[in-house]
Amino acid sequence: MSAMRLHSPAASLAQASRPRYEPLIQMRGVVKTYHTPAGDFPALRGVDVDLFPGEFVAVVGRSGSGKSTLANMLTGIDRPSAGVVLVDDVEIHALGESAMARWRGRNLGIVFQFYQLLPMLSLLQNVMLPMDFCEMYPRGEREARALALLRQVGLEDAADQLPAAVSGGQQQSAAIARALANDPPILVADEPTGNLDSHAAARIVDLFQSLAERGKTILMVTHDPDLAARATRLIRLADGRVTADGRVTAEARP
User: Fold this and answer.
1) Closest to 64 in 3D by CA, of 39, 37, 44, 85
2) Three-state DSSP state, 204
3) CA 240, CA 228: separation in Å to the nearest integer?
4) Residue ranges of domains in the chain
5) What beta strand segments (E) does 90-134 contain?
6) Residue 76 to residues 72, 83, 232: CA-CA distances in angstroms?
């Protein structure tokens, strides 16, 4: 994959020079409380987590344990009620909305369970969107790069198709290609295989493993223990707290 080209180098992570033993992401005392008509709901209760370059981390736990909230803290989709989220020593939740959008577009790839592809655009055009939004790569190179990413996920022949014309697994693969459009160092996937059959899900996790081996930091929220076992590290949440955090051994992998 070609190197990232930025119009504003200060807006990107310095992951190329960060050793793998130094945390890229640090969460310190992260609390998230949602205020609802029924009362306050504590989704996260003092979470401390470090994530390192090149890790493939699975986050597991029952519904309501705080998995998606944890992912949202990292992506800036939500902000903590207390505590600090540092990415490459930048306090991301202190960024304004405009700065956050630009930072997210250049440094994060986000994969959702329901794809979030624009239905009126082809798969190729969907993958080009992040490059257009963040003004990444020369305009004349963006289509070729998008096509190369679709080729990487096995969708080169479907590049001109609309999302509705391809399967759910193909739509999710296109969403992953789009998440990689700006060559982000971090990929966050929230239940990315929840609507897929086992074959399509396994293929997506194969790609995540390959990306981690190439140095990207992958955080995958999942309810599937078999898929979680293919990560290199597993974080378990319960009632908004980390109850287990450890390496996944080769013997534990399916």
Assistant:
1) 44
2) helix
3) 19
4) 19-248
5) 90-91, 108-111
6) 6, 14, 24
Which residue, among 76, 73, 107, has the nearest Cα to 179 in the 3D structure?
107
Fold of the 19-248 domain: Rossmann fold (3.40.50)
Which residue has better confidence, 98 or 71? Answer: 71
Predicted structure pTM score: 0.85
Q: Which of 86-100, 103-117, 225-239 has the highest mean pLDDT?
A: 225-239
Under 8 Å between Cβ of 128 and 142:
yes
Contacts of 59 (CB under 8 A, 6+ apart): 67, 70, 71, 219, 220, 221, 222, 234, 235, 236, 237
Which DSSP symbol is given to 143? H
What is the C-alpha to C-alpha distance for residues 108 and 21, in angstroms, rounded to an integer? 20
Q: What are phi and psi of 126, to 5 degrees?
A: -60, -40
pLDDT of residue 236: 96
pLDDT in tens, 17-26: 556 678 999 9
Q: What is the pLDDT of residue 90?
A: 87
Over 169-192, what HEC string results?
Answer: HHHHHHHHHHHCCCCCCEEEEECC
Q: Averaged over 198-211, what is the pLDDT?
A: 86
